[in-house]
Amino acid sequence: MAVEGGMKCVKFLLYVLLLAFCACAVGLIAIGVAVQVVLKQAITHETTAGSLLPVVIIAVGAFLFLVAFVGCCGACKENYCLMITFAIFLSLIMLVEVAVAIAGYVFRDQVKSEFSKSFQKQMQNYLTDNKTATILDKLQKENKCCGASNYTDWERIPGMAKDRVPDSCCINITVGCGNDFKESTIHTQGCVETIAAWLRKNVLLVAGAALGIAFVLGIIFSCCLVKSIRSGYEVM
């Protein structure tokens, strides 16, 4: 009875953990898609460290969701092999996340540099390409930023007057608000650092939560359930 009660308790905690796994997985996938959209808009279509970042994030999220499914099946059926597989998968996720963290640290400057160069390249076409203008206006409006490094980047754009920035740079956007602007009426910070800060904050938040849940609680609960299953077999 004690073994059965302990198993039920561990299973309940594991189910709660698996729900958290699913939430983290969905969060990672959503962030990966968001990063992909941003980079696709502002970075050229070359295969670079920056362009691979969202693919890795989405892959980790999808794998985490698969792990949650395996763990759920193992807990429901009280299957020893599935729970061992679940524990192994958690270890693999740990290795992948450590590798991603190291790669992100190593390539952080390269990714930021790519983004900055591509953003500035897109800015050159702002006045001649309506599609590019729409994309940059959307990025500046949503992220409350202006230019790549800062608002002065627009002074170097051919055809753009020195006392003018796109209306999307304005704090309160109205038609023509970017003409004869004052610094107090526009967002002066650059989009590269603003977007990079958003990515760091959100990716680290979700990845950190997934890391803590997966390796502190996940491995403990899965090992406890495996032990309970083995104890049940020995009693029988």
TrEMBL record:
GO cellular component terms, A-Z: cell surface; endosome lumen; extracellular exosome; lysosomal membrane; melanosome; multivesicular body membrane; multivesicular body, internal vesicle; nucleoplasm
Cystine bridges: C145-C177
Signal peptide start and end residues: none
Keywords per UniProt: Cell membrane, Disulfide bond, Endosome, Glycoprotein, Lipoprotein, Lysosome, Membrane, Palmitate, Protein transport, Secreted, Transmembrane, Transmembrane helix, Transport
Membrane topology classification: Multi-pass membrane protein
Transmembrane parts of this sequence: 12-39, 51-73, 80-107, 203-226
Subunit relationships: Interacts with TIMP1 and ITGB1 and recruits TIMP1 to ITGB1. Interacts with CD9. Identified in a complex with CD9 and ITGB3. Interacts with PMEL. Interacts with KDR/VEGFR2; identified in a complex with ITGB1 and KDR/VEGFR2 and is required to recruit KDR to ITGB1 complexes. Interacts with SYT7.
Functional description taken from the UniProt entry: Functions as a cell surface receptor for TIMP1 and plays a role in the activation of cellular signaling cascades. Plays a role in the activation of ITGB1 and integrin signaling, leading to the activation of AKT, FAK/PTK2 and MAP kinases. Promotes cell survival, reorganization of the actin cytoskeleton, cell adhesion, spreading and migration, via its role in the activation of AKT and FAK/PTK2. Plays a role in VEGFA signaling via its role in regulating the internalization of KDR/VEGFR2.
Identification of the protein by name: Tetraspanin
